[in-house]
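[09:14] KT: can someone run the structure on this one? pasting the chain below
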Amino acid sequence: MEAVEIELGERIDKTIRFKRENDPEDQSIIDFLQSLANSYHTFGRLTYRQHRAFEKIESFTKPEVIEEHNKWKEEYREEHREKALVIANQYFFGPGGYYASMSTRILTDDKFVPSRAAYEKMCDNKYANKAYHEITREPKYSIGSLVMLRSAATVKQDLRGKLGIVIKNDYHYISSFAKGSKRYNIVLVGKRHALVSCEERHIKSEL
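[09:31] RB: done, structure tokens below
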């Protein structure tokens, strides 16, 4: 039993060194590992839950796991980061407030690479895919286009049938997941400072 406990202490210290050298930005995990090391050196053992948590973290330091993660990091930067930035903007600025922590990391830390599982959960669901399509597709109405607000239930009654000129069509997020939800700003014709924020489905061309 004593040999196993000594080995466990060495494994914890080794994992801390690995994280500091290879994943220094993950400070919360490093702090947790240090708390495990302190507990082990104080009490000579870990609780069952502490041991299970440590083994899960330690598993990510195995050579084959590291190799797979390095491949994923390269793939993410080459193929997925652009979409991750678009979706992070959607979660950060759009409705709902989901994935706030990871969205902030993606938007503010160029070196951050989420795990494959975390990326797929955040960026490859039906809502994220819908947002990505609406945000990145070409707008139907270009800047300067003359448009009319539709007579639809989703348009305020006093704005229905009003003419406007498109002045913005490149928002980095959407406010709903309806078809045609790309966002626009238009200025109403004949009314000074009459700025209206709407979705593409709310307007139609008048040319």
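[09:33] KT: thanks! The chain has seven helices and five strands.
[09:34] RB: yep, looked fine to me
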